Amino acid sequence: MIKGLLSKYFLLMTFTVWSGLNAQEDTISELLKKYNNQTVEYITADSLQNQYDQFVVLDTRTKKEYEVSHLPGAIWVGQRLRKSRLPEIKPDQKVVVYCTVGVRSEDFGEQLLREGYKNVFNLYGSIFYWKDAGNEVVDIDGKATEKVHTYSRKWSQYLKTGEKVY
């Protein structure tokens, strides 16, 4: 009887470990907690949508990602702060940075804060949460598109809507 219970326990433990290895790695919220320091205040997609015209929106992804799709009116600035790419922004002007899920954009936002910008926000969940909330993204010609560059196949699991591009 004890031998049978031990066998069942072993099978249960094996299944639990196996299931855990094959489960979805993290949610975007867990990724942000894991990789970000929360040094740049977050803004939600809904909050940004409601006040969109009050912000300068900066895309901190690669040029290739930006060309697939981006938030309407977003300015591509790349992953590192370069004054030549940065539009004229007053130090007290409201700025939103975004990337794929919000990790690279926090790094860029930290750079802006160090340069003296005071109203910098990181779009929570970035383009993935923006698109998943039903908001529009546009292609390089400014036309609405369903395509979203997902950075990689691994990261594509976090986008729930739209057409995934790698």
Structure description:
The structure is a single chain. With 166 residues, the protein is of the alpha/beta class. The protein has a single domain (26-165), classed as Rhodanese-like domain (Oxidized Rhodanese, domain 1), CATH 3.40.250. Helices cover 38% and strands 17% of the residues. It has 7 helices and 9 strands. It has a 5-stranded parallel β-sheet. The radius of gyration is 20 Å and the shape is globular. InterPro entries: GlpE_sulfurtransferase, Rhodanese-like_dom, Rhodanese-like_dom_sf, Thiosulphate_STrfase_CS. Residues 51-139 form the Rhodanese domain. This is Rhodanese. One of its GO terms (molecular function) is thiosulfate-cyanide sulfurtransferase activity. Residues 1-23 form the signal peptide.
Number of helices, where a helix is a run of at least 4 consecutive DSSP H or I residues: 7
- Specify Rg, calculated over alpha carbons: 20 Å
* Name of the CATH first level: Alpha Beta
Assigned CATH superfamily: Rhodanese-like domain
The shape is globular
Any guess at the CATH architecture?
A: 3-Layer(aba) Sandwich
Q: Structural class, from secondary structure content? A: alpha/beta
Q: How are the strands ordered across the major sheet? A: 1-5-4-2-3
Amino- and carboxy-terminal Cα gap: 54 Å
As residue ranges, the low-confidence spans are 4-25
What's the helix and strand layout?
Layout lengths: L1 H21 L5 H8 L5 E3 L1 H6 L5 E4 L3 H6 L6 E2 L17 E5 L5 H11 L4 E5 L2 H7 L4 E2 L5 E2 L1 E3 L3 H4 L6 E3 L1
Parallel strand pairs: 1-5, 2-3, 2-4, 4-5, 8-9
Antiparallel strand pairs: 6-7
